[in-house]
Design brief:
The protein is an alpha+beta fold. It has 6 helices and 20 strands. It has a 4-stranded antiparallel sheet, with no helix packed on it. Strands 8-7-10-11 form a 4-stranded antiparallel sheet, with no helix packed on it.
Length: 414
């Protein structure tokens, strides 16, 4: 009886030893492999444009860049101001080759983009102020250039638009002095076809290279269409900034032979300021017994065009605030293609405190757009601290409770 027990114990110990030895050998092989293959970092590059340029902010340069940097430092005069950050291009990358500006033939043969990069390598302290002042004035006047191509496919009866790139966009972010641009394109006048490109991060020269094909458009109708490009900068925390727009009437443009390459200067967005933002008729009634506020959105008139396409599709969003904190929101139905909308919609809000001292109401008139974010046409605030007719209207409903009081109000910019 003792012999089988001893044999079983020894066999168990042998099994445990062999398993542990096998695991130890595997761990040694994995550690040796990990030491042989160094870690690497993957940067997504799309046709020469870095999607994540913030990963390249380190000061390390490799290979030929270190040598060229040492040569530039040795050749640079002592009285010049050298800025390492300025050696990067507008996408945050370091140029592969750097050369000195000495002769006029080099200036004539070099492209404008390379010339600006070379010019930034050395800046004297005396001319620094003049250069920055000129650059600020040019940025205010110029909004950049949009490059695109147009083509018509007769076999598929399709209109093809390729948005290639934009150059020289202004910086919409004052802290990083860059933008996050993207483009919205609409075919006017019907606004049936709406597309937009992807957002390119932290660049003033975005290379989109995106093709949009619109089927079912007869070639005979191309002359009646107009392309509207809206160039915007994405903002994660607020409404996107509008950089400018480009309007291309297709009348007189021949697309029967081959692809047509075009470029247009970006201009400021066309907003009719003379007609204002329109007016809104609001009726209010404060019930002190039930501590409720009745709001009736009646009418809107003289609303401006939201874009160059024609009439807008307005609706009203009502936000109730208590001590600058939104506690309730409502919205009306959308009225199609009209500058003079009739809503006649009633909303009842429960007031969380007695009295209207800390209560205010915000009215946002928006243009409904299925393809993208709805744009604000005008804004109105009613409350004790509001100015103009908004404060007067609020004062009247506080003095005369249980009375429905209606007034027209001018809308301001959203």
């Amino acid at each position: 009886d003792e012999i089988p027990t001893v044999v079983g114990i020894f066999s168990a110990f042998g099994l445990v030893f062999s398993v542990s030895l096998f695991a130890w050998i595997c761990c040694q092989r994995k550690s040796s492999k990990s030491n042989k293959t160094p870690p690497y970092k993957f940067v997504h590059v799309l046709k020469g444009v870095d999607i994540y340029p913030e990963n390249l902010n380190s000061k390390k340069k490799f290979g030929a860049d270190e040598k060229s940097e040492a040569k530039n430092k040795s050749a640079m005069p002592k009285n010049s101001l050298h800025l390492d950050l300025e050696k990067r291009d507008l996408n945050g990358n370091f140029p592969k080759t750097t050369s000195k500006i000495q002769s006029s033939p080099d200036l004539e043969n070099s492209s404008p983009k390379h010339f600006t990069e070379r010019k930034k390598d050395s800046v004297s302290p005396d001319s620094l102020k003049s250069i920055t002042s000129l650059s600020s004035e040019e940025k205010q006047d110029k909004l950049g250039t949009l490059f695109f191509s147009l083509e018509y496919n007769f076999e598929k009866k399709a209109f093809v638009v390729n948005i290639k790139e934009a150059r020289g966009l202004p910086a919409m972010d004052e802290q990083s002095m860059t933008s996050d641009p993207y483009i919205k394109m609409t075919i006017l006048p019907e606004k049936k076809h709406k597309v937009k490109t992807r957002v390119l991060r932290k660049t003033l020269d975005p290379a989109f290279d995106e093709t949009f094909t619109f089927y079912g458009i007869p070639y005979s109708q191309i002359q009646d269409l107009t392309l509207h490009f809206m160039i915007l900068s994405f903002d994660r925390f607020s409404r996107d900034d509008v950089i400018g727009e480009v309007l291309i009437p297709l009348a007189g443009i021949e697309l029967s032979e081959e692809k047509l390459l075009m470029d247009r200067e970006i201009i400021k967005r066309n907003v009719r300021k003379s007609s204002g933002r329109g007016e809104l008729l609001i009726s209010l009634c404060y019930q002190s017994t039930t501590n409720t506020l009745t709001v009736v959105v009646l009418k809107a008139r003289h609303l401006p065009k939201s874009d160059v396409s024609g009439l807008s599709d307005p609706y009203v969003k009502v936000n109730l605030y208590h001590a600058k904190k939104r506690i309730s929101k409502k919205k009306t139905h959308v009225k199609k293609c009209t500058p003079n909308a009739v809503f006649n919609e009633l909303f009842v809000f429960d007031i969380p405190c007695e009295g209207l001292d800390e209560i205010s109401i915000e009215f946002l008139v928006l243009d409904s757009d299925r393809g993208s974010r709805n744009e604000v046409i005008g804004r109105l605030i009613l409350g004790s601290s509001a100015e103009g007719t908004g404060g007067e209207h609020w004062k009247e409903i506080c003095e005369y409770p249980r009375r429905q009081i209606a007034k027209w109000h001018m809308l301001c910019d959203g």
